[in-house]
Design a protein that fits this description.
Helix 1 (about 5-20) packs across helix 3 and helix 4 packs across helix 5. By secondary structure, the chain is of the alpha+beta class. The chain has helices at about 5-20, 35-45, 55-60, 90-100, 115-125, 130-170, and strands at about 20-25, 50, 80-85, 105-110, 115. It has two domains: about 5-125, Ribosomal protein L10, N-terminal RNA-binding domain (Alpha-Beta Plaits, 2-Layer Sandwich), CATH 3.30.70.1730; about 125-170. Keywords: Ribonucleoprotein, Ribosomal protein, RNA-binding, rRNA-binding. One of its GO terms (biological process) is translation. Forms part of the ribosomal stalk, playing a central role in the interaction of the ribosome with GTP-bound translation factors. This is Large ribosomal subunit protein uL10.
Length: about 170
């Protein structure tokens, strides 16, 4: 890898560290290519990505970035999992670590906040952006449906009373 290629990698990593909602650092020593491809596919499905980079280049890219606190985790065979959604990469990494003993979460960063392995697990348990939007929409829509039900209820009650009266007269 020549100097120009290294500069390009540092620039790409810098953009990742700056624009990602969450970055998870994990050790992947002993994983097979198939296992790594499975992880990449799962991450791609949620809009995230997995990147293996030289630790030295990643540390250079981290200088001056909000996620600079994760530089200490970059030792040995490390992989970066990241996504714009602040929860997606952590969810996938946590779920994958449960099924594969060779994938060990070291920590991560969420903006300027450093995360230890327990922090990554806590972020993974948070609802995703889509889940939050759905719950907000349901909260906004609930009063409207309650009002519609309250307005329609007297009419249905009157209809029920009328049908009961008709049955009594018929009997």
């Amino acid at each position: 890898m020549d100097r120009a290629q290294k500069e390009q990698v540092v620039e790409e990593l810098g953009q990742i560290f700056e624009s990602s909602g969450v970055v998870v650092v994990a050790r992947y020593e002993g994983m097979t290519v198939a296992e790594m491809q499975a992880l990449r596919a799962q991450m791609r499905d949620v809009g995230g990505a997995v990147r293996v980079a030289k630790n030295r280049l990643a540390k250079i890219a981290l200088e001056g970035k909000p996620a600079a606190s994760i530089a200490d985790y970059l030792t040995g065979m490390t992989v970066l999992a990241f996504s714009e959604d602040p929860v997606a990469a952590a969810k996938v990494a946590d779920a994958y670590a449960k099924t594969n003993d060779k994938f060990v979460i070291l920590g991560g960063a969420m903006g300027e906040n450093a995360l230890d392995p327990a922090g990554v697990k806590a972020v993974a348990q948070m609802p995703s952006r889509e889940e939050l939007i759905a719950s907000i929409v349901s909260c906004i829509g609930a009063p409207a449906s309650n009002i519609a039900g309250a307005i329609g209820a007297p009419a249905s009650n009157i209809a029920g009373i009328l049908s009961t009266l008709e049955e009594r007269e018929a009997a």
